[in-house]
Every structure is written in C-alpha cells, then in structure tokens.
C-alpha cells in the first residue's frame, strides 16, 4: 500500500476519534476534536499531492479518498447540526449533493469515465473545511466568520454540483435510465 492510500486510511480512522472527542465533556475536548479534524483535513490535501506528484494514483485511492473525505465532512456537519450550531437544512443540502455526485461518478465509472474534480468542487471543499474548522473550535469570535463561510460553502456545494452534472450530462444516457 502506497503512502497516499495510507494517509487516506489514517484519515478514515481519525473520524471516530474526532467524534468521540466531540462528545466529551471536558474543557479542551472540543479543541482536541478540532485539531483532529484539521489534521485529518490536511491529509486530504497531502495524499492527493503525493499521489499526483509521484504518479501513485490507484483505483483504491480513487475510491477511498473521496469516501474518506465525505465521511469526515459529513461527521462534522451532523455533529454541528445536532447541537444547533449550523442549520440542519444546509447539512441536508450538502449531504444530498455529495450522494448525488457520488452516484453520478459511479455511473460514469461503470462506463470507464473518470469525472475529475473541478475548480468549483475544490473551492467547495476548501470553504467547507475552513468553515467547519472555525465552527468546531466553538470560540465565540470565530463563530460569525465560520457561519458566513459555511453559507458560502453551501452555495458553492450547490453550484459545483450543478456544474458537474451540466459538464458531464452525457454520462446520463437517457435510453439507459
């Protein structure tokens, strides 16, 4: 197993640790959870960088990396919504988009078509991660910028989802639906 795939596995394994710390009731638990989430988020950048730089892209990585990202982000979204720190409807919109695009990519992959991440999709991910890190800290002066960036992330989540579908609509061969 190559280094990028190991990083992806580490990211996935960090999710339950992150969740456990979010449920703890001691003063620094939330900060520890935020650090775990931040490190896990950084591994997303790092594994992709290493894989592309060293030509270590694998089928496992193509499958596991986006899955690990979604597990991490969805965990944070659900936890923050469960304590009413972000609107639940926005979490539903984001998760629905992720399921939709994942399904779309699965259909494409069945025809040996790879749908690469777009600049809008990358901006979506960056704004989601920044907003979640700010909100996870639970530090009062970071909440307002965190929620503003979260609204922006939700907007780019929808726009990038529409963009993926429009640019790759040929994947949906209507005679096969």
TrEMBL record:
NCBIfam families given in the database record: pgsA (TIGR00560)
Record EC number: 2.7.8.5
Function: This protein catalyzes the committed step to the synthesis of the acidic phospholipids.
PANTHER family on file: CDP-DIACYLGLYCEROL--GLYCEROL-3-PHOSPHATE 3-PHOSPHATIDYLTRANSFERASE 1, CHLOROPLASTIC (PTHR14269:SF62), CDP-DIACYLGLYCEROL--GLYCEROL-3-PHOSPHATE 3-PHOSPHATIDYLTRANSFERASE-RELATED (PTHR14269)
Catalytic class of the enzyme: transferase
Domain of life per record: Bacteria
Signal peptide as annotated in the record: none
Pathway(s) where this gene product acts: Phospholipid metabolism; phosphatidylglycerol biosynthesis; phosphatidylglycerol from CDP-diacylglycerol: step 1/2
UniProt catalytic activity: a CDP-1,2-diacyl-sn-glycerol + sn-glycerol 3-phosphate = a 1,2-diacyl-sn-glycero-3-phospho-(1'-sn-glycero-3'-phosphate) + CMP + H(+)
Predominant subcellular localization, coarse grouping: membrane
Classification via Pfam families: CDP-OH_P_transf
Compartments it resides in: Membrane
GO molecular function: CDP-diacylglycerol-glycerol-3-phosphate 3-phosphatidyltransferase activity
Protein name (record): CDP-diacylglycerol--glycerol-3-phosphate 3-phosphatidyltransferase
Membrane topology: Multi-pass membrane protein
UniProt xrefs under PROSITE patterns: CDP_ALCOHOL_P_TRANSF (PS00379)
Entry's family note: Belongs to the CDP-alcohol phosphatidyltransferase class-I family.
Keywords, sorted A to Z: Lipid biosynthesis, Lipid metabolism, Membrane, Phospholipid biosynthesis, Phospholipid metabolism, Transferase, Transmembrane, Transmembrane helix
Ranges that cross the membrane: 7-23, 29-50, 71-96, 144-166
InterPro entries, A to Z: CDP-alcohol_PTase-I, CDP-OH_P_trans, CDP-OH_PTrfase_TM_dom, CDP_ALCOHOL_P_TRANSF_CS, Phosphatidylglycerol_P_synth
UniProt key word Thylakoid: no
């Amino acid at each position: 197993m190559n280094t990028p795939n190991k990083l992806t596995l580490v990211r996935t394994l960090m999710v339950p640790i992150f969740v456990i710390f979010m449920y703890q009731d001691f003063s620094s638990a939330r900060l520890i959870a935020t650090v775990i989430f931040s490190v896990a988020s950084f591994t997303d950048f790092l594994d992709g960088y290493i894989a592309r730089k060293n030509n270590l892209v694998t089928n496992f990585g193509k499958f596991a990396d986006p899955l690990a990202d979604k597990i991490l982000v969805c965990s944070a979204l659900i936890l923050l919504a469960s304590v009413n720190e972000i609107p639940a409807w926005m979490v539903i919109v984001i998760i629905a988009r992720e399921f939709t695009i994942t399904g779309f990519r699965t259909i494409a992959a069945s025809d040996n078509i790879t749908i690469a991440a777009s600049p809008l999709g990358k901006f979506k991910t960056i704004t989601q991660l920044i907003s979640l890190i700010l909100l996870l800290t639970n530090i009062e002066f970071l909440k307002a910028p965190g929620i503003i960036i979260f609204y922006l992330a939700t907007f780019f989540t929808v726009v990038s989802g529409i963009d993926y579908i429009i640019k790759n609509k040929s994947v949906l061969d209507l005679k096969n639906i």
